[in-house]
Amino acid sequence: MVDIFEKCRKFTTAKELISANIYPYFSVVESEQAPEVVINGKKYIMFGSNNYLGLANDPRMKKAAADAVEKFGTGVGGSRFLNGNSILHIELEKKLAAFKRREAALVYSAGYQMNVGVVASLLAPGDYAVVDKLDHASIIDGCRMSHAEIKRFKHNDVADLDRVLAKLGPDCGKLVIVDGVFSMEGDIAPLPDIVKTVKKYGARLIVDDAHATGVLGATGRGSCEYFGLTFKDVDLVVGTCSKSFASVGGFVVGDADILHYIQHCSRSMIFSAGMPPASAASISEAIDIILAEPQRIKRLWNNADYIKKAFRSMGLNIGRTQTPIVPVIIGDDEKAFSLWRALFEDGLFTNPVISPAVPPKHALIRVVASATHTKEQLDRALNIFEDCVKKTVPAARSVF
Q1: Residue 229 CA to chain centroid, in angstroms?
Q2: Which of 63, 133, 240, 355 is packed most tightly, with the most Cβ within 10 A?
Q3: Looking at 243, 308, 362, 373, which residue is catalytic?
Q4: Which one, of 215, 185, 377, 359, lies nearest residue 294 by Cα?
Q5: pTM for this model (two decimals)
Q6: Domain annotation for the chain: domains and CATH numbers
Q7: pLDDT (tens digit, 9 = 90+) per residue, 293-344?
Q8: Is 362 a catalytic residue?
Q9: From 86, 109, 138, 183, the catalytic residue
């Protein structure tokens, strides 16, 4: 008899890291998401959050959420398809569509749920999903659920994308999906060249702006604004509401007819409860703040440039990052965990990232400074980082 639970009992990797006191995951944060957080009663400089613009603890966001709870309660009572479609969802979708300069928008309760639902509803057996090798897991899972055939091309390699599409022929559906900003590497997809190649072969294009919204473009509208592209260039833009929008949820924007189809065919929308009122209201407030305060985006980039310059002066390899996501590439998993532990013990919260989130032997410490970090906090964090590197992984100090 085969016991499907046996693999659970044999899973020892996390327990071994816990025993070695280098387990970095599921930390319990006891405070709001801010430039400094509290864990186990101790203060840490938060250097690993996706709260890019620092809105997660903004008083206006809190008030919007509280007011929504007071008026609409804590939940919507079911799927949007049936009874859970709030006026807050409709108002937010109108605002998102205008923000992204698209005809229509749909919001989901989670970003992962959105990508799985959108991709799986558009693809079918006999179609091809063409994805960057470093696309987010939610994109890959949506492709798998669709039962379309998955074809991968080399990361940000447009020539390889051309090679893959050329082999597929004209008589099949082809959907190319790329991240606008890659969440671990911090580099940007070369969208203008991708657009040309996609059009050359009659394919369609989805860009995931999870880490580009609120970050790229003069007004934070994302990858298309950054490159000067329009709705005629990129078919659908998707993203999450848990980063610059400082809440939770996912969105897709594009032509109304396409979104109408997705709304009625996406299983993850039809069979999931709608976004809670507090989330819908706070996301709407976040959009207003981003448009009213473009200086937040400037501060984010100034802080990012400051820490990147410091890391390079330390001789650290920060890869090909072009954004506020800064990967400090260590290589060896154990060394990355050791550095994380030293940083954590000295009061600096970061994210160690290993395979499969990054390629094997490419372990890194992922660092993000938000728009609301002060120079004093950045200097303190950088001093901690330099001291810990010297103590734990001096070999990582190879000039990039």
Answers
A1: 21
A2: 240
A3: 243
A4: 215
A5: 0.94
A6: 6-46+294-396 (3.90.1150.10), 59-292 (3.40.640.10)
A7: 999 999 999 999 999 999 999 999 999 999 999 999 999 998 999 999 999 9
A8: no
A9: 183
Which residues have C-beta within 8 Å of that of residue 91, sequence separation ≥ 6? Answer: 280, 284
**DSSP letter string, 119-167:** HHHH--TT-EEEEETT--HHHHHHHHHHTPEEEEE-TT-HHHHHHHHHT
CA proximity to 66, closest of 243, 281, 263, 225: 281
Residue 133 falls in the annotated catalytic set: no
* Pairwise CA distance, residues 278 & 141, whole Å: 28
Residue whose token pair is 């994805």: 131
Cα gap 236→348, rounded to integer Å = 38
Amino acid at 127: D
Active site residue 95: no
- Say if residues 351 and 366 touch (Cβ distance below 8 Å): yes
* DSSP character at residue 69: H
At residue 361, the 3 state secondary structure works out as: coil
Which one, of 268, 237, 259, 249, lies nearest residue 145 by Cα?
268
Mean pLDDT over the full length of the chain: 95
Task: Output the pLDDT for position 149.
Answer: 97
Q: Give me the mean pLDDT over the 64-91 stretch.
A: 97
The pLDDT tens digits of the residues spanning 258-274 come to: 999 999 999 999 999 99
Q: Which of 89, 100, 174, 211 is catalytic?
A: 211
Beta-bridged to residue 130, according to DSSP, are: 151, 176
- The rounded distance, in Å, linking the Cα atoms of 194 and 212 is 17
Three-state DSSP class for residue 330: strand
